[in-house]
């Protein structure tokens, strides 16, 4: 089984407090893994470490088999391009429209050809955003922003999807969004790392579930 993501003895100390303590985690191709933890437990730091947006105090993170501490900026960018991310708090650019944010996710792949147009249209329709394509991201409701984040996460046919509280603020559509994530991961053999406070959601979507407590995985 191809390795998508690995944490080996990863620790992180911030402001004198140990946020993560000797984390060991391996996710192979097609595996769906959840980490459940309370707000402030450090789940968001796991996402940043996983894609090289933060550095561990000790230990090693490998993404797609590549040790991130040995990867240069361009290598990290290419590795991140194989991941679909939905970050808690959001990462949409507020002064761009929903469609422009979707196109931006394509990076150097470009987003002006007919195939990109069809993919954007399909994802906007799937996530109920077809009427919001030309609306600036900072004008969206919280629920719309979360749906736009999820749609963008699947723009590049990612090998690994990392979702941090993906349905927060979109509770009215929670069941539908959950089913869409399942359809976008399971049949395609995509690996999934779900970071959430919702243990029931973790059990429904994932094969392995861990709890993050006092910086340790249980």
Automatic annotation (TrEMBL):
- A Pfam family it matches: ABC_tran
Keyword Transport annotated:
yes
What InterPro entries does this protein map onto? Answer: AAA+_ATPase, ABC_transporter-like_ATP-bd, ABC_transporter_ATP-binding, P-loop_NTPase
Alphabetized, the UniProt keywords read: ATP-binding, Nodulation, Nucleotide-binding, Transport
The UniProt entry, under PROSITE patterns, shows: ABC_TRANSPORTER_2 (PS50893)
Superkingdom field: Bacteria
Q: Does the keyword ATP-binding apply?
A: yes
Q: Which residues form the ABC transporter domain?
A: 5-218
Any single GO molecular-function term of the entry would be: ATP hydrolysis activity
The UniProt entry's sequence similarity note says: Belongs to the ABC transporter superfamily.
Instruction: Please state what the protein is called.
Output: ABC transport system ATP-binding protein
Species assigned in the record: Sphingobium xenophagum
């Amino acid at each position: 089984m191809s390795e998508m993501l690995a944490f080996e003895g990863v620790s992180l100390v911030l402001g004198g407090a140990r946020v993560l303590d000797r984390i060991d985690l391996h996710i192979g191709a097609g595996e769906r893994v959840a980490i459940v933890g309370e707000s402030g437990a450090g789940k968001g730091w796991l996402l940043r470490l996983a894609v090289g947006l933060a550095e561990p105090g000790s230990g090693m993170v490998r993404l797609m088999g590549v040790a991130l501490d040995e990867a240069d900026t361009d290598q990290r960018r290419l590795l991140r391009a194989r991941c679909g991310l939905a970050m808690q708090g959001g990462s949409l650019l507020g002064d761009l429209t929903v469609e422009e944010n979707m196109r931006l996710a394509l990076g150097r792949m470009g987003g002006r050809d007919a195939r990109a147009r069809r993919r954007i249209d399909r994802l906007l329709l799937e996530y109920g955003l077809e009427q919001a394509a030309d609306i600036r991201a900072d004008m969206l409701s919280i629920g719309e922003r979360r749906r736009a984040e999820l749609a963008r996460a699947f723009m590049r046919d990612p090998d690994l999807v990392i979702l941090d509280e993906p349905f927060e603020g979109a509770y009215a559509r929670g069941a539908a969004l959950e089913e869409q994530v399942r359809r976008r991961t399971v049949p395609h053999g995509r690996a999934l790392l779900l970071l959430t406070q919702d243990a029931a959601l973790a059990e429904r979507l994932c094969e392995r579930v861990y709890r993050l407590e006092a910086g340790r995985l249980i």
